[in-house]
DNA repair protein RadA
Amino acid sequence: MVKVKTKFYCTECGYESPKWYGKCPGCGSWNTMVEETEKVVKTQGLTSGLFHTKEKPLPIINIESGQEPRIQTGIGELNRVLGGGIVPGSLILVGGDPGIGKSTLLLQTSHEMAKAGLRVLYISGEESTRQTKLRAERLGALSPDLYVLCESAMDGIEEAIDQVKPDFLVIDSIQTVYLPEVTSAPGSVSQVRECTARFMRISKGQGIATVLVGHVTKEGAIAGPRMLEHMVDSVLYFEGERHHSYRLLRAVKNRFGSTNEIGIFEMNEAGLAEVANPSELFLSERPLGVAGSTVVASMEGTRPMLVELQALIASTQFPSPRRMATGVDHHRMNLIIAVLEKRMGMFLQNQDAYVNLAGGVKLDEPAVDLAIAVSIASSFRDLPTKPFDVFFGEVGLTGEVRAVSRAEQRVKEAAKLGFKRVILPEKSMKGWKGPKEIQLIGVNTVADALAVALD
Ligand SMILES: Nc1ncnc2c1ncn2[C@@H]1O[C@H](COP(=O)(O)OP(=O)(O)O)[C@@H](O)[C@H]1O
Ligand SMILES: [Mg+2]
């Protein structure tokens, strides 16, 4: 008889305990302990003592450095998000809703890497090899150096790795992999944790760049303990609106680059196509010369992006009006509404306010403030904005417009797309000159900006 033990794990931090708690003693979150039964077979070095490199401490000046070598994935947007390509031996976690296109992205990446002469092993625990082949045919991802295996037992996967000796490994998905030593079900906290630890050892030990696909929970976090995110080198999220064809890839953690960059793709019949010029995409359905619509020049990492921002102000009978923001921070929206009420004398207390960024993009930098203010004022007064104006600037509590970074790049992008005027913080105009085909209007207050935009 094997002794079956019941344990409780925190899905946030991985805290382990023999009894249930409402509040995790490890991280203090509520209602995160889940029960798992497991047959405990002690094997050495599952998570503990992962590497012992037998190296001695060195003075830092004697350590060889040089740039991390990078493997170009053949997919520019992915390289951008990773900070210039995949670092050999790194472990990357890719999360996203079901059906968003994770398998598609990774199969295409695998194909591109195989085409470039690397050995690639794609392991699917969710789809049969035939299904994967069908998908690969649709995506045009057939190359002789791309090996596919349908397997979910860790032993089988390790055997395949020994056979193929890949440079690039994809595990689709980490929730389907299981270690027989850990008897809880695949996808459970302990399985996911131990299997990830194994893959970490494999990827670091053998220098294999490894991508783990992870499912997300209803709350949008990668299923399994939060700890997973600490174990891997990079965490990427693939997201998008169900009803739109484009997808955003963003890094929430990256040990080898910044987390500011986003990658933009469009999903179509032949797979994911890279979107090299996102501004065009996000402005493509813009109505011209209507009240409530403005264009904001924003930065996503090092890339400028123009996005349409819409506001709708409608009177309401209810004592507490609705305030809804999609794509922008709703606290910023409330703050800007307060500024418009107090400084501009707009009576918005009996008005519902909706603010929406087109195309499902999210912008969280304060430079969108000015566009929010102008859109709301434009809709409230029912005055159309000029179709060839672009806005950016942070709004302060006294109604002042504050400087933001990288003004020159934002203006250049606006000029490239044929806009005629940019309304920007006057303080951001020092020390550079914009292209001459575009007019720059520096403003110091929201009132100045409205006078220009809605005259
Ligand atoms: N025959 C097809 N033609 C066009 N698009 C398809 C086809 N089959 C699947 N797709 C697209 O691919 C998506 C599934 O992507 P997939 O990579 O399997 O997602 P994930 O691995 O994240 O669950 C579907 O939502 C659909 O948009
Ligand atoms: Mg999939």
